[in-house]
Design a protein that fits this description.
alpha/beta, Rossmann fold, 33% helix
Length: 309
């Protein structure tokens, strides 16, 4: 997959099969669109193009509203590269771009810049200034500008009514199995291992403290999770804590993972953590001994859970 940071880098194609959207998380519904994109591309011996926007439009249009996303642009690009997309065009989303009306979007971008011959969109897809453009407008203008448009039916996209919003809600409530079902894969976070205060070592449960670089990345609900950690393409089972460590009077929210059967220096290394199941919420224990005893029980439970994955 070729990646273009803006339309200026892209050269018009002879037969472009195009889809467009934010594709946050590249979830099950998005995957249905991408499957159809690939089918049409192969049938017509064309090249597939996905137009996406960064930053997320809501971060630009409504900066006062808090929004946490399922994927950074790097994570989204990696996910899309696994879906047989030929060209990924990342359009910088600005207030000026948001004022582009739907007709100019069709003519100047889809037709003149991309070379669209087939357009695949999800149901109720909106585009252009104030989201005024619609499937009906595309159907009307398509023959004028020389392209066909296909709308993926709602029932085909909505696997159990999947949406990025519902996945975000499930994760915010700690229901990672539901989120994973909608995503079609485990939800993950990426970050760099940073120095901690090494309290975990005194409990015989050393942890890697993770600094998540993408500030708008959604972090699941506070609690203890069964996870797998990916370090240099190797998978390790473990349990992860999201929270404040109330037993020690913590005030700063942390994400830290105890990696089973692992004893390597990974400070400043990038790691990925996949979430599978929340086993309990974070609680304050009466003393360190009670906490240590609970951690031993947590580990046993996590080991049993991860046997299913």
């Amino acid at each position: 997959m070729k990646i273009y940071n803006g339309l200026d880098e892209f050269r018009k194609l002879d037969f472009a099969v195009v889809t467009s959207g934010t594709f946050d998380g590249v979830h099950f519904g998005h995957q249905k669109i991408l499957q159809r994109l690939e089918e049409i591309t192969r049938k017509n011996n064309g090249e597939s193009v996905l137009l996406t926007y960064w930053p997320h439009p809501r971060l630009v249009l409504y900066p006062e509203q808090e929004l946490f996303l399922l994927s950074s642009i790097e994570e989204k690009s990696k996910l899309l590269s696994q879906k047989n997309v030929d060209h990924l065009v990342i359009i910088p989303f600005t207030t000026d771009f948001s004022n582009l009306n739907s007709e100019d979007f069709i003519k100047n971008i889809l037709v003149d810049k991309i070379g669209t011959k087939k357009l695949v969109i999800g149901y109720d897809h909106k585009f252009g200034k104030n989201r005024s453009g619609s499937f009906e407008e595309l159907k009307k203008d398509g023959p004028i500008y020389g392209f066909d448009v296909e709308e993926i039916p709602k029932q085909m996209i909505e696997h159990n009514a999947v949406s990025s919003t519902k996945i975000r809600k499930a994760l915010a409530e700690g229901r990672v199995e539901i989120a994973n079902e909608y995503l079609g894969r485990p939800f993950c976070i990426n970050g760099v291992v940073i120095e901690g205060d090494k309290i975990g070592r005194t409990l015989d449960f050393p942890t890697a403290n993770i600094e998540v670089k993408f500030k708008n990345k959604l972090i699941p609900a506070e609690g203890i999770y069964a996870v797998k950690t990916i370090i240099e393409d190797n998978y390790y089972k473990g349990m992860l804590n999201i929270g404040y460590r109330p037993t020690f009077g913590g005030v700063q929210k942390r994400v830290e993972v105890n990696i089973f059967d692992f004893d390597q220096d990974i400070y400043r290394k990038e790691i990925t953590v996949e979430f599978y199941h929340k086993i309990r919420s974070e609680v304050k224990f009466e003393n360190v001994g009670a906490l240590k005893s609970q951690l031993q029980k947590d580990k046993s439970e996590v080991i049993q859970i991860l046997k299913n994955y």
